[in-house]
Amino acid sequence: MADTLVAGTIDARMLIGGEWSAASNGALIETLNPATGAVLGTIPDATRSDVDRAVAAAHAAAGAWRRLAPVARAEMVNRLAAAVEARSEEFAALDSAENGSLLTEMRRDIAAGVSALRYFAGLALQVRGETLPGPTGEITYTTRVPFGVVGRIVPFNHPFMFAASKIAAPLVAGNTVVLKPSEFTSLSALLLADVANDILPVGVFNVVTGAGPESGDALVSHPNVHRIAFTGSVATGLAIQRRAAERMVKTVSLELGGKNPLVVFPDADLDTVVDAAVRGMNFTWQGQSCGSLSRNLVHASIYDEFVDRLAERVSALRPGLPDDPASQTGAIVNDRQLAKVLDYVRIGQEEGARLMTGGTRVVDGVLADGLFVRPAVFADVAIDSRLAQEEIFGPVLSVTRFSDEHDAIRMANATQFGLTASVFTQDLGIAHRFAESVDAGYVWVNEVSRHLPGAPYGGVKNSGIGREEDLGELLSYTQTKSIHITYAHGSLR
Ligand code: NAD
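A: This is the predicted complex of the input protein with nicotinamide-adenine-dinucleotide.
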């Protein structure tokens, strides 16, 4: 597929039941390179009947797949990881071209996706039950049973990484999967399907592409999809919860947005923390990462110096074409996101926050046809302002002053979100109290952004339900069954 990309346009199809398929009504969505404005090609805009076919194929394949030995499933998932790894460059090139993030970052995403496939394959034998103590002649044990067909819906910001890592657990646990990638970044999921089609049995892994309100909704409301896992925005997550609950009881897990605090106490080393604040904001993905630490809360005694140093560092970040190794930040994924980012820059100014750097679109030179915004820093952001409360999902970092530890925790928790949080201090007491009190599913102390394999990831409050990237994720694709057997009434009693 990457060869076709170089040649000009891709005319992609969906993988349904091992066959490459157009939308039943022929509808297409154009996919664009946000860094150049060039048309990359088209993907099918799946209809409800396409989703029905995909779920039917997954349903038909589910029985044989769950009856396989777990190690046999794991072996295929490991083969998939190896086959993807061998084509890493193609995957990275597709993701970078379609979502505008730096090629160097997308290479890391491919490696992370491959490693997640291997991680869950390695856990296959951990999907097991328990034996319960009971009276002689009776035994009760539990088994873990897969759901059947899992509907997996993922966003645009890490296209391959999510496509690969989010199908690993359900497949290893014995479910079949229908994946719906973002309509803005579907190509690498389709290439993954292409690679998987030579390895997995027909119907075990299906990909439908298209606009969320039709194809995503059809998947969520389908009567044969009992387990839905969603990564994306709060608004869509809420819509999915409502829709899933309309006619049936379904198990839904949600990985949603964040407005994550990075809190700086006066004893932190300023050079280290300014560097961390830049890394933690994920400017290399244009801030488009759920875990981005987009609110810096800084103690009053170091506030002015922190703001000046941060603004200087951020203003030096160089927007550039994603495949140029000198670029430090890439393109925003689409027009809608670009408009949203620029809108929040205007809102921030209207709310009285101080724009220290950036926030303007790049309109000249080789970037003129792309969707590039200079990374922005706002200082003096009021904690109850929209800039501090709403997820922008773009390169806009806000800084707010706090006076004491109590104030810092109050501000850290003063949003609807609770995904990640970071604190910089040398004081063990402050670090522990912060980690205990902050509303977040993942907390860093003197660190940002790092995820260790196997550490549960997910949010509290409106940032989501459930944890992923760990054994718990694997088990969440099963339901526990208790089996009681009475087996003897003989002389041994
Ligand atoms: P989005 O909610 O707009 O779309 C996500 C997916 O949902 C897409 O595939 C879309 O087509 C689909 N969709 C849209 N409407 C739907 C509907 N009614 N029913 C079913 N599916 C529907 O999100 P986005 O703009 O692609 O991604 C950005 C958001 O994702 C941000 O809020 C970000 O924080 C969040 N995110 C969270 C995590 C996490 O792990 N917590 C990771 C990455 C991104």
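The domain at 261-445 is CATH 3.40.309.10 (Aldehyde Dehydrogenase; Chain A, domain 2). The radius of gyration is 24 Å.
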